[in-house]
Amino acid sequence: xxxxxxxxxxxxxxxxxxxxxxxxxxxxxxxxxxxxxxxxxxxxxxxxxxxxxxxxxxxxxxxxxxxxxxxxxxxxxxxxxxxxxxxxxxxxxxxxxxxxxxxxxxxxxxxxxxxxxxxxxxxxxxxxxxxxxxxxxxxxxxxxxxxxxxxxxxxxxxxxxxxxxxxxxxxxxxxxxxxxxxxxx
Length: 185
Known about the structure:
single chain, 185 residues, alpha+beta, Mago nashi protein, 26% helix
């Protein structure tokens, strides 16, 4: 008799669990993701990049600036036209401590905040008379994060502080103002 009673309780318990699973869809509890902090990349081969893509115009007049910062160097590239022709390249030594300080500042500026909406991954065509800013965290030749914003406002995927982020990148290039004084950004 006791065995039947225990069997009855187990059956009722299983029915309750089944009902709970049906009403809650059997979904797993939401656990916050444990993504790495930006500064944790300071001792890796990861780098961060800012691309400033100027107004859409004739290939002879089109200009881009790319600033890549890693733990060993900062690279400034001025690109002419639409075929990635580098017309000015400058390299500056960097250290892991300097890179870590820069990554901390970028983190506070919201560098890792953005919208991953697949419909907005391509910034081309947005703000054609202004500038497009592309912010990337890259490692091993792959984008870990990629967001963009424009000087036109409105549609973007970058949710950080655009002005502060751009200024932080520009400050990594000694003589940035001189290098870009003739560019039309």
